[in-house]
Write a structure and sequence with these properties.
five-stranded mixed sheet, 197 residues, alpha+beta, elongated, four-stranded antiparallel sheet, 6 helices, 32% helix
Length: 197
C-alpha cells in the first residue's frame, strides 16, 4: 500500500537551502547545506525521523511491544522529494531601510532573517536601480513555491498498516507537522499543513 503526501505552508529554514558560496556558512550559524544533495538529505532525515517517532507513539498507545513496533517500521518505506533553493549569496538580518548589495553578486541572493530565508533580492548590485531594499519591496521577490513544498510517499508491506484508511494516514502526517511545529523549526512550521492523497 502506498500513500502520497504533500507538506506546504511553511517558511523556509536556512537548513533546507544550500549554497556553494564560501562566505555564506559563516554568516548563518544555524546551518546551511553546501550542496543540493545535502539539503535534500537534511529534509529527508528530518521528515523520516518524525514520521517514525509518530508511528512509534501510535504503536505504544496501542499497547504494542517495542520489538513488534520495530518489525512494523521495518516494513515501511518513506520517500521524500524536495527541491532546495540555492542561495548563491546571502544578506543576513538587514535593516528594513538598508540598501544592498554593495557590489555585483550572483543570483539568487537570499535574504535571511534569523534562521529563515524570507525573500530573494533580484538586484544584481550593478548601478542605480539594481540594488535591493526591504522597505518598499525594491527588487525583492518571494521564494518560489517549489521550494516551499515537500512531497513524498509512505509505502508499507505490513498487513495492518496497509489497511489503514486515508483518514488514519492523514492523522499520522498531521501529527508529524505538529511535531515539526513544536521542535527546533517551530517558527517556520507553525502554519504548515499536510495532505494525503
Amino acid at each position: 500500500m502506498k500513500r502520497n503526501f504533500n507538506v506546504s505552508g511553511f517558511r523556509l529554514p536556512t537548513a533546507m537551502v544550500f549554497t556553494t558560496s564560501s562566505s555564506a556558512p559563516a554568516q548563518i550559524p544555524s546551518g546551511i547545506a553546501n550542496t543540493s544533495d545535502g539539503a535534500k538529505s537534511f529534509v529527508s532525515r528530518l521528515i523520516m525521523q518524525i514520521i517514525v517517532e509518530v508511528l512509534e507513539q501510535q504503536g505504544r498507545s496501542a499497547g504494542l511491544p517495542d520489538t513488534i513496533i520495530s518489525s512494523i517500521l521495518n516494513q515501511l518505506m518513506v520517500q521524500i522529494n524536495y527541491d532546495p533553493l540555492e542561495c548563491k549569496t546571502v544578506t543576513v538580518n538587514p535593516k528594513a531601510d538598508a540598501i544592498f548589495p554593495d557590489a555585483m553578486m550572483p543570483l539568487p541572493h537570499c535574504i535571511v532573517i534569523g534562521n529563515t530565508v524570507t525573500a530573494l533580492c533580484t538586484g544584481t548590485g550593478n548601478g542605480g536601480g539594481e540594488k535591493c531594499k526591504i522597505e518598499g519591496n525594491m527588487k525583492i521577490a518571494p521564494i518560489d513555491n517549489k521550494h516551499l513544498s515537500i512531497t513524498g510517499s509512505l509505502t508499507t508491506t505490513n498487513i495492518i498498516m496497509a489497511n489503514w484508511s486515508r483518514q488514519m494516514w492523514q492523522s499520522i502526517v498531521n501529527r508529524t507537522i505538529r511535531m515539526l511545529a513544536s521542535g527546533p523549526f517551530s517558527s517556520q512550521f507553525f502554519s504548515a499543513f499536510a495532505t494525503i492523497g
